[in-house]
Structures are given as structure tokens and as C-alpha cells.
């Protein structure tokens, strides 16, 4: 998938905001929503981050199926 520089910048910003929201602000619902949006738009790091959250059960219910889904999506984007 090809992205313009603006789209890449917007996805990076959404990803970093989502990570910050989860790790610093501890607003898990909004942070995960931001990460899911970025991952579905093709941001592989966001998908891998979500995969790890679900695999480890970090502030979300541990869910191996969701972890695998996000990992598979990340691999498609690589």
C-alpha cells in the first residue's frame, strides 16, 4: 500500500498518540481505539503494539485470538 508523506505523518502521529495515551495517560479505551485506527489504516507498528497488549493482557483482557489477528495484520503491512 502506497502512502503520501502526509498520510505517513498522520499515521505516525496517531500511533505515537495512541501509545502515549496507553502508557502515560493510562486512558486505555481511547489509546487502543487510536492504535486500532492506525493499524487498520496500514501502520504495522500499531498492529504489533496491539498484538503485544493482547498477548500479555496489559490493561486489556488477555486474548490470544486478538493478539494473533493484530500480529497477522502487522505482517501483511511489512
TrEMBL record:
Q: Which Gene3D superfamilies match?
A: Tetratricopeptide repeat domain (1.25.40.10)
Q: Which InterPro entries match?
A: TPR-like_helical_dom_sf (IPR011990)
Highest taxon above the source species: Bacteria
Q: What is this protein called?
A: Sel1 repeat family protein
Organism equals Acinetobacter populi
**Lineage, top ranks:** Bacteria, Pseudomonadati, Pseudomonadota, Gammaproteobacteria, Moraxellales
Amino acid at each position: 500500500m502506497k502512502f503520501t508523506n502526509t498520510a505517513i505523518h498522520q499515521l505516525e502521529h496517531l500511533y505515537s498518540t495512541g501509545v502515549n495515551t496507553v502508557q502515560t495517560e493510562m486512558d486505555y479505551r481511547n489509546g487502543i481505539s487510536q492504535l486500532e485506527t492506525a493499524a487498520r489504516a496500514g501502520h504495522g507498528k500499531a498492529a504489533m503494539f496491539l498484538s503485544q497488549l493482547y498477548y500479555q493482557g496489559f490493561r486489556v483482557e488477555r486474548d490470544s485470538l486478538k493478539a494473533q489477528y493484530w500480529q497477522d495484520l502487522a505482517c501483511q503491512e511489512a
